[in-house]
Design a protein that fits this description.
The protein is α/β, with parallel strands linked by helices and about 400 residues long. It folds into two domains: about 250 residues, Ribonuclease Z/Hydroxyacylglutathione hydrolase-like (Metallo-beta-lactamase, Chain A), CATH 3.60.15.10; about 90 residues, no CATH class. The chain has eleven helices and 16 strands. The strands form four sheets. It has a seven-stranded mixed beta sheet, with helices on both faces. Helix 9 runs antiparallel to helix 10. The chain is globular and about 60 Å long. The structure holds fe (ii) ion. The site of fe (ii) ion has 7 residues, from helix 3.
Amino acid sequence: MSTLLEKKQNWRWWFLLPLYPYERRRTLVRELIPNQVWSFEQLQGLLYVAVPIRMTVIRLSKGLMLYCPITPTIEVVEGLAILEKQYGPVITLVLPTASGLEHKVSLPALSRAFPNAQIWVCPGQWSFPLQLPLRWVGIASKRTRILMKDNTPHNNEIDWYSLGPLDLGVGRFQEICCFHKASGTLLLTDSLVGISSKPPEIFDLDPTPLLFHGREYGDELLMDSYEVRKKGWARMVLFASYLRPELLEIRSFTQVVLHSLRSGLRHPHIHFGLYPFAWQANWCEIIDTIMADEIPKLQVAPVLERLVFPRARNIFLDWLDQLQKINNLVMLVPAHYHAPIPCCSSDIAELRDQITKRVWATDKESWSFLASLDRTLFKLGALPSYSAE
Ligand SMILES: [Fe+2]
């Protein structure tokens, strides 16, 4: 029998995008800036490679704006109701990405939960394999506006910036970020992330993915300690960033099955003991490139750099140019990984400078799998070439 909390976290439409944690969507609510900015976080992933996905709530003079939808469970709607009582109604919903399916999928349900809110979506929304009108995918067309094309909302309180558009062949990449002037907060979606070696707080609600990946062999039971959580987190970040990082080997089918025969492992909670990964002894040498111990390490999301922008670095640099001119920038809040990330315009300038000086979208080391994917898609004509840089 499920508890009241389980009912509030249940999401019966999980099969529309069957990602971990499936029907049980726990939500962590945090106040990032007192009385101004809040984070609603859930987990999302495949095969226990899970990272936080975040909706950010901004307090405006006339009510609340929700940026980047997440699954609107009862727990989420109740959490927002508490904020509405204090700060006014939800007046604006923003879907800031054209391609991020994990963000798009929650918009129809979220918009039904707030029938009086105006909806703003990134231009170039696309569906695959058929291009369907917005109303066919459950987005109310009468109260929906297109960012940039139909103006932008709350311009006296928020500045808007566009990364892209880029033609991806099957559709468009574009991300609209926004700067909330009162709090000095820049809201982002997928392009920039900040990663710390400390596992995100949301895993305290259920650390299973960390413990699953914190093992060496499939016949080990899940044991909980801070060190195991930290190890599991670092490995999940490497998976999520590079899909198949270097210093990782895949065990033989026979080995995987033999390890799974140990008693106590045949449970769906631990994938019936099936654990095919073998990390080389020196695997942790590569984590310093992607995460820091104290302040989250600010970086371009590797998957975007290698699969979306490999031949379009200048578009990315132009966008950073705009961001580094923002006055009074205090922090970044991306839709994934850690937040908030303390950040001022000189940090953006430094990031931009680093990008101009290093090799962009390299084929080496952990990037090799992403590079092979890019080459395959490019050869198939599924990716545009853009001008050579
Ligand atoms: Fe995303």
